Amino acid sequence: MTEADLAIVGIAELATPEGTTARTGADLSRLKVVRDAAVACRRGRIVYVGPEAGFRETVSVVPGGTVLDAEGGTVLPGFVDAHTHLPFAGWRDGELDEVLRGATYAEIAARGGGILATVAATRAIEPGALVELVRARLDGMLRLGTTTVEAKSGYGLSLEAELKQLEALREGATGHPVEVVPTFLGAHKVPGELRHRRSEYVDRVVAEMLPEVARRRLAESADVFVDRGAFSVAEARRILQAARAVGLAVRVHADQFAEDGAAELAAELGAASADHLEHVSNAGVEALARSGTTAVLLPGPSLFLRERRLPPTRRLVEAGVPIALASDFNPGTCPCESMGTALWLGCLRFGLSVDEAITAATLNAAHALGRAEQCGSLEVGKRADLVVHAVPNRRHLVYRF
Ligand code: NIG
Ligand code: FE
């Protein structure tokens, strides 16, 4: 008999990808599906996943253990959100009317909105208040079914303020059930005070910020926003090579508003992920497939900015690029932290099938964060990160958007 301290029964449908690495191509949609299922866990690890019939003969719940009735719900792995800008202060709802009038992201930034508006608010907030914001947002994400989340700095743009963001993440995550995977995004934008001295800012990121972030172990990866309004491919290459030299994995905000060759750069550097990709070239798709870099698709900001150009989802899948879905939660282009929303948008707007989207929002996202051995699927030995959705089957999560 296997002993368990938590059992979940009454599951109409359990669906999960399987494995400890990303699924690609035709395997992206290959889920294990169990009708009338049960799951059992012990000390936070899964010890049984399978049919409820026969479960009582295999698993015994220890005295004082919990048996939960899923009441005919659907169980999936907890969502893994592989791209967020979580530790910011201040909303930018004042930009909404401009967005709705059709102003572009670049126009809003030129009028004093955009990333630098959030930088001002984030620099101004007390560290303790930022920690409270982080905790409250993690609580909210957990309620929405997210159990692991990547979170980027990038609204400090000075050593002190970037460290404040990353430290707030560390403190906010301590003891919280959601696991936070931190990323240093000092190269999100050149700060206003250095706008005429951009090379000085790049030097600071390379020589000052990256080594200090690595020394304090405040981030696992570094990211660069490659864009006309942010950093060039050449600047990003320099920053990300320096990131690798101090032991960080690398990520790239790539080809969101134009074909910049940023996906090719991500592939060249063996990046863990290339994110956005609305304008990725065919060569970029091929390069990502060769390097095994995960394409993190972000349907939330695409919807919010009412972008007509969508990422080449099918081409990416057919080329064998690992696909993940993420929220891109941030105050400017996606003030929505719901992975359930990213899931249905990933289907209804980006053209993933339901089962592809589930893999993209769980196992493949865990792979992009270097966590596929621990979470992202419901299998014996993995962390007991699972969510009961109050729907009769997984299709309803998209169908009833
Ligand atoms: O991923 N693209 C750049 N960064 C964010 C937006 C940040 C902001 O507007 O505050 C994004 O969309
Ligand atoms: Fe982003």
How would you sum up this structure, described in words?
36% of the residues lie in helices and 24% in strands. The radius of gyration is 21 Å and the shape is globular. The protein is built from 16 helices and 13 strands. An eight-stranded parallel beta sheet has the order 5-6-7-8-9-10-11-12. The mean pLDDT is 97. The chain has 401 residues and is α/β, with parallel strands linked by helices. Helix 5 packs across helix 6 and helix 9 (262-268) runs parallel beside helix 10 (282-291). The protein starts with a strand and ends with a helix. Bound molecules: N-(iminomethyl)-L-glutamic acid and fe (iii) ion. N-(iminomethyl)-L-glutamic acid (NIG) is lined by residues 85, 114-115, 118, 225, 253, 256, 301, 328, 330-333. Residues 85, 114-115, 118, 225, 253, 256, 301, 328, 330-333 line the site of N-(iminomethyl)-L-glutamic acid.
What is the structure about, briefly put?
The protein is α/β, with parallel strands linked by helices.
Query: What oligomeric assembly is this protein in?
Result: single chain
Distance between the termini: 41 Å
> How many strand units?
13
* Major β-sheet strand ordering: 5-6-7-8-9-10-11-12
